[in-house]
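Replying to the earlier thread about multi-chain prediction with a worked example.

Input:
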Amino acid sequence: MADSMTGLEPQDVIDQEMRDISASYAAGSAVETQPRRDYAPYRSSRLRHPTKDLQQADPEGIELWAPVFGARDVGELESDLTIQRGGEPVGERMVVTGRVLDGEGRPVRHQLVEIWQANAGGRYIHQRDQHPAALDPHFTGMGRCLTDADGTYRFTTIKPGPYPWKNHHNAWRPAHIHFSLFGTDFTQRLVTQMYFPGDPLFDRDPIYQSIVDPRARDRLVATYDHDLTQHEWATGYRWDIVLTGSHRTPLEQDAAEEAHA
Amino acid sequence: MTPIPTPGQTVGPFFHYALPYDGDNELVPPAAAGAVRLHGTVRDGAGEPVPDAVLELWQADAAGEVVQQAGSLHRDGWTFTGFGRSATDAEGRYSFTTLRPGVVPGASAPFFAITVLARGLLHRLFTRAYLPGASDAFLDGLDPDRRTTVLTVADESGFRFDVRLQGEDETVFLDFGDE
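Result:
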C-alpha cells in the first residue's frame, strides 16, 4: 500500500520486485554484463526502455571513429573539483583515479572523461534538486580531464553523500559519482556511475540493482587504496573502467603509440 | 584474459550543469555557409516529451571526411569537429546546427550517428539518422514499417528526426555486437 503522506509505494514493494528478478536471473544460465533497460523497480524506466530488440549492425564509416579532444578543450585545473569556487568545499577530500581500457585491454589515450556528483551533504547544484540539504558555495560538483598516454584519469574531489529521491517512499541513492567516457570508436561511448565500497544502500537501490549479475555490478564499486591516500590531505580510491572492444583496424599510428607506451 | 566491459548506468536527472556547455549543439555557426539544422523531439512510450534527455551527434563533414579535430568543447567558430551535444528542453526538443554529412569512403549512405541518454534509460542507446530517401544494406534489412524511424525528414531549415524510446513507432536502436 502506498504511503499515506507521500502517495509513494514502500521500500518493501520495491525490495520484493528486485528479489524476484534476482532469483529469476540466478535460476537461469545466461550471464548479463550490462544493466537491464527494462527494470521495473526503477519506475522511470517503464516508459523509457525500448520494447523491440535492438537491431544488430556492423559499425561502419563514422562509427569506427571517435571525436578527438585536446588540451584546447580541457584546462588542467578542471580535474580538481576542490578549487573551483574560491574556497575549500566541506567534506572528505579524496583522489579518484584509474585507467580507461578498451575491450582488448588497450589503454584509451587522450580521451575525455567527465564527472558530476552531489556535494558531501548529498545535494546537487541542479535547480531541480530540492532535497533540503545545504548547497556548498565552494563546490560545483563537475569536472573534466583527459586520460594520459597510459589511459589514466585522475580527479581530486569531495566524497559525495547519499541522497533521497522519489522512486518510492524513503528511497535513497547510494553515494556515487557520474562518469561519462569516450573510447576510440563511437560505439564505445559509456555513461555510468562509480560507487563506494560497503555502501549500506546497495541492496535497496533499483538503479544499482538494474545490473542483475552481482559480479557485473561489483565492477562499479571503487577500491579504497591506502597507497593513494595522502598524509593529512586526502583519501584515495581506484576505479578502472573497461569500454567495449574496438571495431576499427588499428592504424600504423596506433601501433607506433603502442610500441612507445 | 579479455577484460569485461564496465556496466552502464542512467545519466540521471542532474546532468544539466555538467554535460551541456556553451556552443555544444553548434557544430557550425548558424550563419555558416551550408549550415543545416538537425532537430526533433524525444518521446516516451506514452508519447510524452522527455525533458531530461541528451543527444550526442557524431558525423563526417560535407565531403565525407571523418575529421579528427579537437575543439568540440571550446569552439573557435571555424573548425568543424564533427561532434555535438544537445540536451532536450521542457518540450522534449533537441536541435543541432551542423553540416549535411557526406558519404564516408567504405560506407554506403551518409548518416548522422546519434547517442541517446536520458533519466530512466539505464544504458545509452545508439541510432542512425539517415538523409531523406537514403538506401543501403542496413536500411534494406529493416522491417519496412520501422525503416522510417531512422530516416530524417527534410524541412525548411534542414532535417527533422524524432526519437521514440518505446511504443508502436519506436526508433530502431542499434547493437554493434558488444552487448
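The CA atoms of residues 41 and 79 of chain A lie 34 Å apart.

Feel free to reuse this layout for your own posts.
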